Automatic annotation (TrEMBL):
Domain HTH marR-type: 30-73
Protein name according to UniProt: ROK family transcriptional regulator
Record-stated family: Belongs to the ROK (NagC/XylR) family.
Organism listed in the record: Autumnicola musiva
Length: 417
């Protein structure tokens, strides 16, 4: 390989233009980079085990990457009786990913580097009623500003992840819940690709969180795990047989819309009695506001906060301070959640269930009533075999998952050897 190694590794041309030997070596470079991005730092033997490549080949390949300032030595690992092995990681700011996360009331644009560190983060207000075209134009301007501010080499950005709620078909690049209220001639994915000339992935927010848990969090090394994302709504990420399960169109995991109450409350999906109407951030906020209007005493609005301004964060904060009303309301959500989780356990028999999202911050306030409900709703033989955990990845989990997906998409080229 006579060209500069970094040019070869980040070349966006068709790899089949290369010779067979060159393609094989390039694939090894890419596999090492993806493995280090996902794992942080690894010894040569750990790389060999994870990638199924012999230690001599890994050593030669890693030395080339080290020589060309793509890898660096980050320290020494644990010893198994002999000399402590050297550990390798990626060079900081080797490349970047741009991640656009649509939340309930804002859009976050987050730039991550090759060590998964947040380099820049910008926010814009979003209420779901913004015109899709105007929102995208605002995102374009914000992204352009980030590039100008950081004088970022555009060719070092691997791609863009767009993380959203809704029914999303990632292969088509379409969101079937949002961005459909205009005469759209291009998919959302194509719009971003045509603007920035970069690889783009449109991904459901819960799927993105599940990828982050699978690679970095509590679902790591788990073969059968479920990630329940609880924020304003409820979603489900499914890992079975050590693989993410997407369903036919990518719509799997609509856990919040399983029916739990006949003739129940009307859900925004158009059906009645969905789990999301009884066990979600939206349900919690509606219930708390209703009780406060009826004269319920709580520290939630003691500081003069208007009832219509009470939100999920203020309720959870009150519970953490010991407000019994807030605790009781969260417990009711946990009880209703347990009814849905009982169905999941009996369907999937998972080894682990991870509660993700803002409700993970409530800890025992959500898990204790959920477990009490499970004990009456689910077969104990299955409950006893399931581990229940709270995610610790925090608010950046969706952008981490999106970034992991972009890195995988960029380096997972077609190698016809």
């Amino acid at each position: 390989m006579t060209e500069q190694l970094s040019d070869i590794i980040f070349n966006r041309t068709d790899v089949n233009e290369f010779s067979k030997v060159k393609r094989k070596r390039l694939r090894q470079y890419h596999e090492i980079i993806v493995s280090l991005y996902n794992n942080g730092s690894l010894s040569l033997s750990e790389m060999s085990d994870k990638l199924g490549i012999s230690v001599p080949t890994i050593t030669n390949t890693a030395n080339s990457l080290l020589e060309h300032n793509i890898l660096k030595k980050t320290g020494t690992g644990e010893s198994n009786g002999g000399r402590r092995p050297e550990v390798y990681g990626l060079v900081e700011n080797l490349f970047y990913t741009l991640n656009v996360h649509f939340e309930d009331s804002r859009v976050r644009i987050v730039l991550l580097n090759s060590l998964r560190k947040v380099i820049e983060s910008a926010e814009m207000e979003y209420n779901g009623k913004n015109s899709p075209s105007s929102m995208i134009q605002a995102i374009y301007k914000q992204v352009d500003q980030i590039f100008k501010t950081f004088k970022l080499p555009f060719d070092k950005v691997l791609g863009i992840s767009v993380i959203m709620p809704g029914l999303i078909n990632s292969e088509e690049g379409k969101n079937y819940t949002y961005y459909l209220n205009e005469d759209v001639t291009q998919s959302l994915e194509k719009k971003f690709e045509s603007k920035f000339d970069l690889p783009v992935i449109i991904m459901n927010d819960v799927k993105s969180c599940t990828i982050a848990e699978f690679v970095l969090g509590k679902a790591k090394n788990k073969l059968n795990a479920l990630v329940i994302s609880m924020n304003w709504g409820i979603g489900l990420g499914i890992i079975m047989g050590g693989k993410m399960q997407w369903g036919k169109n990518g719509f799997s995991g609509e856990f919040g819309h399983i029916p739990v109450q006949e003739f129940g409350k009307l859900c925004h999906c158009g059906k009645r009695g969905c789990l999301e109407t009884e066990a979600s951030g939206e349900a919690l906020v509606k219930n708390v506001r209703k009780e406060l209007k009826n004269g319920q005493f709580s520290i939630i609005n003691m500081d003069g906060k208007k009832i219509e301004d009470v939100n999920l964060d203020s309720i959870i904060d009150a519970a953490k301070k010991g407000d019994q009303f807030a605790i009781d309301c969260i417990s009711k959500v946990g009880e209703n959640l347990g009814k849905g989780v009982a169905v999941l356990i009996q369907l999937f028999n998972p080894e682990s269930i991870i509660i993700h999202g803002v409700f993970a911050e409530t800890k025992q306030f959500i898990t204790t009533p959920m477990m009490q409900s499970l004990n009456t709703q689910c077969m104990m033989q299955l409950v006893d075999q399931t581990e229940f955990e709270l995610s610790d990845l925090g608010a950046d989990s969706p952008v981490l998952g999106g970034s992991i997906a972009i890195v995988d998409k960029f380096f997972n080229k077609t190698y016809e050897l």
